[in-house]
Amino acid sequence: MTTASADAMFNLLLFVYPCLHRHSRMTTTQKPTLVSRISAVISARVKTLFKPLTLLAKALLKKKFSMLRYEWLYKDVPDCPPLEVTACAQHVRLSVGAPGNQSTRNPLLHIRDMLEESVVVGRAIKVSVELKTGKCPPEQGLRHLGGYLAFIGKEEIDFKLWTELEVNLPVNEPLPFTVDSRHFRSLLPANAFTNLKRLTWSAHREQLVASWLPFTPSLLLTLTNLVICCDLSLIDCSYILYHAKQLKELTVCTLRKDLSHYPVLSQQFYASDVPHLTSLILRSDDDLVPLLTRCKFPSLRYLDLDLLDLTTLTVRSLKFGLNLNTINLSGDLKQEDVDWISSQYSHVYHIFIPGLAVFLR
Questions:
Q1: Rounded to whole angstroms, how far apart are CA atoms 229 and 186?
Q2: Which helix (H) or strand (E) holds 159?
Q3: Which pTM was predicted?
Q4: CB–CB of 173/210 below 8 Å?
Q5: Which of 106, 141, 202, 277, CA to CA, is 20 to 30 A from 340?
Q6: Is residue 150 exposed (0-12), middle (13-18) or buried (19+ Cβ within 10 Å)?
Q7: SS3 297
């Protein structure tokens, strides 16, 4: 028995003994009241003594049931895709399908131990995940990776503490992704990421809708920094700008003309006002006029366009506010276009157009 338990028992005896002494001198009608009082005190003190044990038992049961909810992730451990887990105070990294010896240990226990050893409880964290092909069927690796993330966010570190997320999936071809009754827990609830600020996404564009983290409006709502490394259409880009109202920095690595009739996020071209966007980096072989004329960026300070289809019409569509201080344009421009930019943006500190001119204010 601990010192605290012994003290509690001693205090209980100090109360009960005088009561029993008085009980011997009480009348018959007084005795039931005293007995009830003693019973209540004993019951309360017993609950106090056993409360730590009760809480411990509940915690152990919760961990046990959380494992059972994700049994499909470890039921056949030898057949699970290889998993690497590294963690520090505020950063967790998962790599599925990485080369190496396959562990015979329950992967969820491995994840839990790494988090308990390294991650600071209650602090904001960054989560990085990677799916490597070759050691397991890609669709199996994709599903397991989502299951591990769901286990961390629902059972270990609440999604509300996730402020940065990096996702690296195969980009060359789409991976099949369906959800059945056994695997529905692998879905990440997009509306649970209430504090997610930074998202880096590298994958095939089909995974924007067919994965455990689809690009829904609720996911985009809180983002301030977004990097997308996959092929997109202009319509997809307009969808993102429309729903990500808090964006400050956006980088889209590839906008493709041949995808103009095959958007994945929406069939509608959105016009939007993105009031907080300060940095816009786009790489495209499509004409950006529809995007630049329908979206407003009043706070934009840094503009970087790497365009194969950079026409005079595109240049004249560049209408930004007085906050803009850097313009980087890569494309086939005429000198008259450069002169027009220089005259329209005389307040811009740095204008860089490879092969033609550099203006420093």
A1: 23
A2: none
A3: 0.78
A4: no
A5: 277
A6: buried
A7: coil
